[in-house]
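note to self: dont lose this again. the chain is below, predicted strucutre after it. 634 aa total, dont forget to put it in the shared folder this time
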Amino acid sequence: MEEAGECLRRAMGCLQRAYELQPDNAATLIFLADRLIAKGDIRGAQALAERALATADTMAIQAEAHFQVARSLHASKKFDQAFDAYTKCLSLNDKHTLGMYGLGQMQLQRTDMSSAEATFQRVLERNPKCVEVLRALGYLHARLPNTKAKALEYYEREMHVLADEAAEHARQTGKSGDHAMAWMDDANLFLEAGLLYEATNARKARKAYLAASIILQRQPGNGDHIPELWNNLGALSQLTGESTESVFSELNAAAEKCARVLGARPKQRTNEVRRLENTQRTIRYNVARFYETCGLWQKAENLYQTIVAEIPAYTDARLRLAHIAYFYRANSREALAQISQAIDVDAKRPAPWLMRGNIELQRKNVQEARRAFEHVLKDIAKHDVYALCSLGNFYLAAGKSESVRASSEANASSPVAKKSRDLAQQNYKRALEFFGKCLQLDARCVAAAHGVAIAMGERGFANDARRLFQEVRDAATSGLGPLTLCTQSSDFVFKVPQPPIASVQHSVDDMRVSSDVILWAGVNTAHACVEIGNYRQAILVYESCIKRLRETTLALESQTGHFVVQAFDAHGEGAGVSEAEQAERSKVARDLQLYLARALYVQAKSSKDVKVMRMALKEMRELCEAANVKLPSD
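---
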């Protein structure tokens, strides 16, 4: 570093001497203008560049003089004049790389995106590892519709180039280990990438934000000016299943930074103060979601109530209050009242109507539920996937009801039975129409595919249904998003899945057994195996479902247990799994054991296998003991 400084001093001495000998030499003036721009003397640099332009005697030097004039005007924010100067530079030397880059920046300033991209691509062809151009192309594509993936591609290329530079620097200096993060000093690269990753990959988004936080903490201020970063880290940590300690640490850091910056600001209601106050509310909302994850319903409820007291139009907080009221307090009146207030605030938002429909469906008010879902499709968003899936489920349930009615008739050929069968087929057809629309909108919609498989199974195509259920299970295992499942149960009724109500974080909803796509896809696969008479395969799948239910219950109890006491010291407040969830899990466990016992019994009878019959009787005995039903000892 000292050698570089000494070389620079000697170079400046030579330039000064050259200027003294020939004050109007264009090359000397251009070099001096370049140094003045580096030192921040923009006006002096522009004056020298204009003098060089007047005395330049070759096209190459004229082009360089125009470039220095353009740089000065660019730094002075005189963008139109800078655009003209860059254009003149390139008219004299169309291979002037820095001139091309400057022109591309001016085209971006003018929002002429197509011209800017073409210009930057010309620079990139000549310099494929130029990080400035890669950044510019990433920035450009991030702001164009339907090119976010391209933007990420450029940002990732820039990261790879910087990592290669770090590795080369480490090799030259004889250092060992990974020095990539120590070499990087621009947090904006990772902030931009993280913002784009949020829409596609929560883990990569968190990794990018974590890198940005490491860089910012090395700089003055420790990143206090953007508390949103730590809020995003906390929210993404919940989504990606990081430890509760990490989530609490990140959200706590966000709250502290926000409070610190707000305290240092003047009390006037500036835009910056409003931004920070909004961020503070968002952090509070995410902390409440975190409390829900930990089973601290009262703490979460208190925070949501604080938010809606400050901002009555904060609909997400009202919907969370409704969720807690219904699913954890069993208070449907309070839940529906909160939803009604959310609708009063914004009647055109789908989420409150969808939650109302979901709750009414749970309460068996099927007509009210149907009206809510149909209202969304007719008056708010005709392509809403949740509403389409919910109406598909509604018609599936209606079809099943008519099928049961037809089968209960003593005379299968009676007009009543025939009418019920016809109505069942009509309802199944309507269900398939709605699920088909879902799959047209989103080919990866597990809920819609599940619904199609159920309709196929109910209509008698059990083998096709089994294959489709297995595909759904495989898709869920490979990482598709969590879905909320309707779990009304009867004698081998397929379980009907529904997608999440809103795009807000879904950590607490995912804790419910009804959200376990893999479990219910497995149960439905086993049901389909029973329908086609493949009891051996059904037994294996039922056993795997019982094992999964036990494992997820243990994991849930572990997740919502020890850290709550350590981090919050929740005196007296019940933490962990709600009573309603415990009851639901117990019911599902009993149902699965009954399904398994029935499959074992039928398999034992058909194969005359004594061992399998003993297994069936063992399962039945355990069920009877759990229900306090006494059986003969033999």
